[in-house]
Amino acid sequence: MTREDTPTWPHKDLLDVDQLSLEEIHRVFETALSLQEINQRPVKKVPTLRGRSVVLFFAEPSTRTKTSFDMAGKRLSADTFSLAQSSSSLTKGESLKDTALTLQAMSPDAIVIRHWASGAAQFLAERLECSVINAGDGWHAHPTQALLDGFTLFQEWGTLQGKTILILGDIAHSRVARSNVNLLTRLGANVRLCGPRTLLPHDTSSWPVEVYTDLDKACRDADGVMCLRLQLERMQSGMLPDLREYARTYGLAPRHLERAADDCRVLHPGPMNRGVEIDSALADSLSSLVLDQVSAGVATRMALLFLYLTRTEAS
Amino acid sequence: MSAPHLVIRRADWFGREKDLLMADGRVLELADHDPARSFGDAEVVEAHGAVLLPSLVDAHVHLREPGFEYKEDIASGLKAAARGGFGRVMAMANTSPVNDNADVTEAMLDTARRAHPDGPFLHPVGALTRGLKGEELSPMADMAQAGCIAFSNDGLPMASAAFFRKAVEYAATFNRPVIDHCENPTMNPGCGVNEGEVSSRLGLRAQPWVAEAEQVARDCLLAEFLGLPIHLAHVSCRASVDCIRTAKARGAPVTAETCPHYLTLTESSVEGYNTLAKVNPPLRTDEDVAALKAALADGTIDILATDHAPHADHEKETEFEAAPCGISGLETAMSLTWPLVESGLIDRERFADLWRHRPAELFGLEPVRLEPGDAADCILFDPSAGWTPSPDSLVSKGKNTPFRDTPLKGRVTAHVLGGVRVF
């Protein structure tokens, strides 16, 4: 893809997938498809974003998302700079606003932010001139994860129209679930949520989903099951008695897929707790798209960096 | 009879055009307006038909001094009170140091007297427990003598019913009511947003209404059991209202307040992670707003209070979960609640009850009905005056209001205390 071919990308920031039209979501997928080939080359680098700088500002621990963005940027020849919570001035009491303004003064082209607080990405976007890409804010949104999940399924199925996808586990505290509900339903999928009542949001009346507490029922005729990571602090906060009970009740096992549609696919945003959210053999089975998600993640983030960092060039 | 030294001329007193004559700090006469009447050397304030009311009482403010003077100090808080129409404000104890001993109480009163000798007047609400920790009772006898007119753990509600009972009983020993911040802290994983559709969508830790209503129910039963008054602060939800209504019908000596923002805003105000709408208890739903209005009209809720909670801009300009709870409310209160009268929900008499007569009665303050001999404490309020709260137009140090940059209608145009114009 050349820059001359690129129509204007109208967004400065990516805060959640609801900012994107259906057409734009497909454009992300198409761009990811075209860039994916670079990842298969012996020399995995093109000069597309040479001279552009991207700050990876991760105020919360992250391995795969950060590495994925870093790799995506570098493969397009952008310069990436990492700033972690532990090494930032936030640990010295500096406010998010001041950290942001300091970064802004260094004139990056984009800031990729992961933050523990819902709304943190929006907070930065309202104050910064550069693009802000949300790499996960609190329990709120993880749009790039949702886009890579959607891209993974798009590659697998060609379309999500009419597909039934179950999101399983700790929905209440999951930014992945919130963004995926939004994205997958807009792509035409029927979305189900399943988990114990303690891990479901209090009020999903405005969400276009079916909610289950019975995993067997939730799996019936599902075309895809997306397991979410269970955080261990849920036990201490009284939401679950122990891992064993969770695994027995809500851990996805081969027997559940017997109730699902033929060729039901299994996804997990990682990192996986094998034997807890998902049966280990199932995670390694042919049904699993877990590693496809990781590959799709790099391609999707390359597409997003490309679209956001070149957004003004065609205008 | 003394000659008047101050006259408010052509004011709207419950629909009738009146002249208010004041002398020696007291009301001399509230007479039908007579265009031919001369007032001698008296200073005359032309009301131009503005509404005349007794100066208001705010039973719930945070003035932040000592300890957090950058948010507000007693001088700036009382100045905001004067502008807002409040001649008397009851300041909560969550200062630093906490107002949990007579020395702090006396220091606060001394600061207030020096800053505003003619008023508005500060009435400290002492901490119910030392350091607001809920572990030991405060020395309430000393503090009552020093000037505390009530006791409360506002801001840090107590989960222990048994200890709270003792605190209510001990306060009653000195004829001081207890004001409870109704929230079971063990049921509140977060604050500042109602647990519901908005919080679920935005991914925010939230406070469920049951955390408030459960403690309201406890307090209602406790007040009935003890036969002692408990005042319930900043009631925000329908379930609390239902509990209070039932308790009053059973004869429980329980009273309650709500605040202007709970009558005008809903949980949707936090959309976009708007920290200016982050308040504890949180803004609720349309259904709750309707229930609160009905409760104001039928007397279930006794008084209005602002819960004026000033914060510095930099504290609110941050992540939603990191921002402190609170709305700066003294200066917008009249603008936000006068529409209750204009809409016909309540009449002016009830309005004056909610903001003046009933709080004075509950907390032992001098009654003022602008009858001859009453303290000359009054305000003029122009219901048609438009204004827009902004950092420049607010005199409180706290500019943290969700009504910032929102055009409002109705404003206090004059404020007299003891016959002296304080605004």
Q: Any idea what the radius of gyration of chain A is? A: 19 Å
**How many H/I helices of chain A?**
12
- Helix/strand order of chain B: EEEEEEHEHEHEHEHHEHEHHEHHHHEEE
The parts of chain A where pLDDT drops under 50 for at least 5 residues are: none
- List the chains of the largest interface with their residue counts: A-B, 27 and 21 residues
Q: What's the pLDDT, averaged over the residues of chain B? A: 97
Strand content of chain A: 5-15%
Unreliable sequence segments of chain B: none
User: How far apart lie the N and C ends of chain B?
Assistant: 27 Å
Round the mean pLDDT of chain A to the nearest integer and report it.
Answer: 92
Number of strands of chain A: 9
Strand content of the residues of chain B, in percent? 15-25%
Total DSSP E strands of chain B:
16
Helix content of chain A: 25-40%
Query: Structural class given helices, strands, pairing of chain A?
Result: alpha/beta
Please give the count of helices of chain B.
13
Span from first to last CA of chain A? 17 Å
Radius of gyration of chain B: 21 Å
Textual characterization of the structure:
- The complex is a heterodimer of chains A (315) and B (423).
- Chain A has helices at 22-36, 64-75, 96-105, 120-125, 143-157, 175-186, 215-219, 233-236, 243-250, 254-259, 280-283, 290-309; strands at 53-58, 79-84, 110-115, 131-137, 164-168, 190-194, 209-212, 224-227, 265-267.
- By secondary structure, chain A is α/β, with parallel strands linked by helices.
- In chain A, the strands form 2 sheets. Chain A has a 5-stranded parallel β-sheet. In chain A, strands 2-1-3-4 form a 4-stranded parallel β-sheet.
- Chain A is globular, with a radius of gyration of 19 Å.
- Chain B has 423 residues and is of the alpha/beta class.
- Chain B has helices spanning 74-84, 102-115, 140-146, 161-173, 197-202, 209-226, 238-249, 260-264, 286-298, 313-316, 333-337, 339-342, 348-362, and strands spanning 6-13, 16-23, 26-32, 43-46, 51-54, 56-61, 86-91, 121-127, 150-152, 178-180, 230-232, 254-258, 303-304, 378-387, 408-417, 420-421.
- An 8-stranded parallel β-sheet of chain B has the order 6-7-8-9-10-11-12-13.
- In chain B, helix 7 runs parallel beside helix 9 (286-298).
- The interface between A and B is medium-sized, with 27 and 21 residues.
